[in-house]
Amino acid sequence: MTMIDPASQNQLNSILQKLGINKNEEEKKANKDQLGQEDFLKLMTTQLQNQDPFAPMENAEFIAQMAQFSTVTGITEMGESLKGLASQLKEFRIATASSLLGSSVMVPGNVARPDSNGEIHGMIDLPSTSTMTQLTFSDAAGTPIHSMDLGPSQAGLVGFSWEDIPEDVLASNAPLRVDVYADFGNGMESLTPSVFAEVFSASVGDDTTGVMLDVRDYGQVRAADVLRFRTATGSTQQTL
Q: Where in the chain are the domains?
């Protein structure tokens, strides 16, 4: 029966350590239900002791077994790393949600309210160049109270703002409807603008939805779908 001398055992331990298979005592105690280095060495030693002396194990086969064990160990450690990353992402979502409280986000929709400065800001995404672009602001009863003519506009995002809102409109604290019409060569067509709306609350959500925002007049909106947001101080950011 073939025996493994101490020198060979030490050499084997050195090889295992280089392959990343080596485990310290604390890790072995914490993973009794898993195959550790000591268990692997016992199996390997038993295999060597009971092999046919006239047909010993090939070196390539021996190294392949150690490499396979190293791969399994690496996958396990990678899984632990991914768990840690998931925890960090959750903390990031919490920080993002809390930072958006009291801010405004730009969402697609026709409902707008004056902000803390008594102004309404928004954008229009024109699919092509327009020869005429107009906006109409209406009250809750549908009565037009203000209109804007932006004239010809290039394709892309076109910003608009209503800054001189009358005091009686501000005092009513009622939502206004914003209608957009543009002429691309075949008559006036209706478009849906994007307006800034106040964030009432924010929740962490899950791995699928991400951070969810409770936006005034619009309900639940995914933070990932927001194109721009404006902080309480008035600064505007492109994306979250």
A: 6-98, 104-237
At residue 127, does pLDDT exceed 70? yes
Question: How crowded is the C-beta side of 112, counted as CA atoms within 13 Å?
Answer: 31
pLDDT tens per residue across span 15-31: 556 555 555 555 555 55
Buried b (16+ CB within 10 A) or exposed e, 106-144: bbebbebbbeeeeebbbbbebeeebeebbbebbeeeeee
Q: Where are the beta strands (DSSP E) in the chain?
A: 104-108, 111-112, 120-126, 132-138, 144-149, 156-162, 176-183, 188-191, 194-203, 212-215, 219-222, 229-230, 236-237
Distance CA(153)–CA(34), nearest Å, equals 67
- Phi-psi domain of 24 (left: phi exceeds 0; alpha: psi -120 through 50; beta: other): beta
Out of 2.60.40.4070, 3.60.21.10, 3.40.50.10710, 3.30.300.10, which CATH number does the structure's domain 104-237 have? 2.60.40.4070
* Distance, CA of 176 to CA of 139 (rounded, Å): 5
